[in-house]
Each structure stands twice: as C-alpha cells, then as structure tokens.
Amino acid sequence: MPQLHLDRSGTILHATPTAQRLLEYDDEEALNPCFFTHVHGRNLHQVMQDMAHMVRQRKRKASWFLRLRTGNGRWRWFRAQASNKLYAQPPHIAVNLQPV
Question: Considering the entire predicted model, what is its pTM?
Fold first, then answer.
C-alpha cells in the first residue's frame, strides 16, 4: 500500500516502497522530508488546516484530492486519506495515496 508516515510538523518519517515509486523516486533516492513541499500551492491550505486539526483537536481523519510534485518535478493528482495515529506507537499521521 502506498503510504507516508508524517510527524506532527509534517516531516516524512517513512515512505513505503510503493509510495516512493508512485511519487517517481528511486528506491535509494531520498524524498524531501517536508511533506508540504510536495503539495501544490492550491491544495496546501486545506492540507495544513486538516493536519493542524489532527494535532491540536484530535481530528481523526481527512481526505484530499490534491496534486503532489513527483521526483521528476511534475505534478500528479492523488486521492489521499489521512488517519491520525498520533496517539499510537510510534506516533504518526498515516497518509494513504491513490493515483487518479
């Protein structure tokens, strides 16, 4: 399953190999650790707002239809489902990606 694990500040802690390939990065190529740098500016406000609500108000889930910049520098559309797992071990926000 293509999935990213983010910390409270939006840092990518882990990317599954399928997520890395879906975002057009080689297995040995490192993603920019700041998730927000991958999100298109027109989608950024909603993503940041939902993540802030997950951190501060314990919002459980969020879903987005958004563009993410790939390793090749192009923008691709994705459906993303974010789940708040900040109170699990290890704490993270899980973002499942599905290409559109």
Answer: 0.95
